[in-house]
Design a protein that fits this description.
173 residues; alpha+beta; five-stranded antiparallel sheet; three-stranded antiparallel sheet; 40% helix; rod-shaped
């Protein structure tokens, strides 16, 4: 009789251990699945947030260029010239402030769209320039015959913003 009781107790102890181990393994598996789900959701959020930030930078740069051109579209105030810093095309806006003639240069340098306000006979430099936004590429072309300025600003991983602005006035002579 003692042997039968010992066998029954051993069987119960063995089955309890198997059930306990299987429940613990299921809980560990569930925890790993939940952790991987949280991790992949976080990575997706990071990608969306990075894309939103980059799109915001492009919208700021594009809007800045469009507004500057529209505000200064008067006879001879707008031109596209190679900037002395990088050699790429830059938007140059001429204006008179308190009797002094100034030139506002909008150009691309070191991954940033920059703006420099200098006297019209001076050239811009990075130390007198203000950052407008982070952009990886900036292209500017002036179709003088059709009085149109084409621009493109881009950041890696986001579709570039392109625009054509028809101006009412001609170039500076």
């Amino acid at each position: 009789m003692k042997e039968v009781l010992k066998n029954i107790i051993r069987q119960k102890k063995g089955s309890i251990m198997v059930e306990t181990v299987s429940v613990v393994l299921l809980l560990i598996l569930l925890g790993v699945c939940c952790f991987s789900l949280v991790l992949s959701s976080f990575e997706a959020y990071q990608r969306l947030n990075d894309s939103r930030i980059k799109s915001g930078e492009l919208r700021i740069a594009s809007s800045f260029i469009i507004n500057k051109i529209r505000q200064n579209d008067v006879a001879g105030n707008i031109d596209v010239r190679p900037d002395p810093i990088s050699g790429n095309n830059a938007l140059v806006i001429y204006e008179s402030i308190n009797g002094e003639n100034y030139a506002t240069w909008i150009y691309h340098d070191s991954g940033c769209l920059m703006e420099a306000l200098v006297l019209s006979n001076e050239i811009p430099s990075p130390d007198v320039s203000q950052k407008i936004g982070n952009v990886d590429s900036f292209r500017l072309d002036f179709d003088r015959e059709n009085k149109q300025i084409f621009f493109s600003v881009g950041i890696e991983g986001v579709k570039p913003y392109n625009g054509i602005i028809k101006i009412r006035t001609g170039q500076r002579e």
